[in-house]
Amino acid sequence: MSDNLARQFLIREDVTFLNHGSFGACPRPVFAAYQALQLELEGEPVEFLGRRLNDLMRTPREAVAAELGSDPNNIAAVINATSGLNIVAQSLPLKPGDQILTTDHEYSALEKTWAYVCRKTGAEIVVVKVPMPLVSEEAFTDAIIGGMTDRTKVLFLSHITSPTALVFPIERSLAEARKRGIWSVIDGAHTPGHIPLSLDTLGADFYSGNCHKWMMTPKGSAFLHARPEVQGLLDPLVISHGWTKESKEPGALGAFGNSPFIDGIEMQGTRDPSAWLAVPSAIAFRKENDWTSIADHCRQLAQDTARRLGELTGLPPLSSPEFSAPQMVAMPIPECDTAEIHKQLFEHYRIEIPVFKWQDHCIVRVSVQGYNSRPQMDRLLDALSELLNLSKAGTGTAG
């Protein structure tokens, strides 16, 4: 990437930041739009929050719906995907003996969410082991469908996994869940802005995604998407001004004239909505800078870095290329103290990157966004070679 593009971000120059996947990074123009909204709010809080907010919230819903292939009435703003998925998990009418089918690749916060729900309802979690390395849609789908039983009430899957950075081929599993009357709940935390996404075509009952990661909006902007047929199942986690006692009745409206789904979730008393209101500016930034081309360059750089590290370690990848997240790759490294490697990478090399143990794999997960460059990838490979006593052969290989 060019230095001019990197300067459009706020990342500190003394850090090689290779961890966009965790919290994202917001471009300067988008952050400026976000701060302008905050200043406008503070200039007249009653007008902004009391008289204009309902109309203001509609514009980002429309922008997200257009970008991600749905109707704005099916989208509600939440602060992050975890909160959106908690709304779903804590709303579904589960009972003792019901089963939640999921995989061994899920995000730990959501594993805890479902464990909490099971403790309250008596439902059970059933974990499917995904065939690894992931090289076949058929093998994945067979494993998921093979885990379904008459007791399965919920299918919970990541679209792009957090620990293993895999794109799960979930389409046929979702169709089978619909056929069997199983609610499908999808963790799309890493998906919007990362891979093409049409929510209506995908057909999940519930889908929550972050805007602050790969769409590069300010932190605290995410959405919950629900098909119209299942919106009535949902209750907000916080009961406030948007809720009405008639919210479950057919054709009911929320307190602010939207659907009960939208008003109940979005209108929850005093909070700063500026991050969500800045979403259209992030979408515009991506279009103005031809982000499709930039993302393709990032994909090449990410995949090439994973290939080069694989040549150094001799360890096979976790998947074939089509199932690897384009700009985020979980790269196996030799057995090591991952916490110490993570510490050394940051303290001695100023490289910010996740290093962790997942099942029997030690992993370095690299994220590549428009502010990253080939020299930064070289720096990572050199640092890992030194820390893990790898051969440096191949670190200068052309991509």
Automatic annotation (TrEMBL):
**Signal peptide bounds:** none
Q: What UniProt keywords apply to this chain's record, in alphabetical order?
A: Pyridoxal phosphate
Q: Check the record and name the InterPro entries matching this protein.
A: Aminotrans_V_dom (IPR000192), PyrdxlP-dep_Trfase (IPR015424), PyrdxlP-dep_Trfase_major (IPR015421), PyrdxlP-dep_Trfase_small (IPR015422)
Q: Which residues form the Aminotransferase class V domain?
A: 27-379
Superkingdom of the organism of origin: Bacteria
What PANTHER family has UniProt attached to this entry? HERCYNYLCYSTEINE SULFOXIDE LYASE, L-CYSTEINE DESULFHYDRASE
Query: In its UniProt entry, what is this protein called?
Result: Aminotransferase class V domain-containing protein
What is the species listed in this Swiss-Prot or TrEMBL entry? Devosia riboflavina
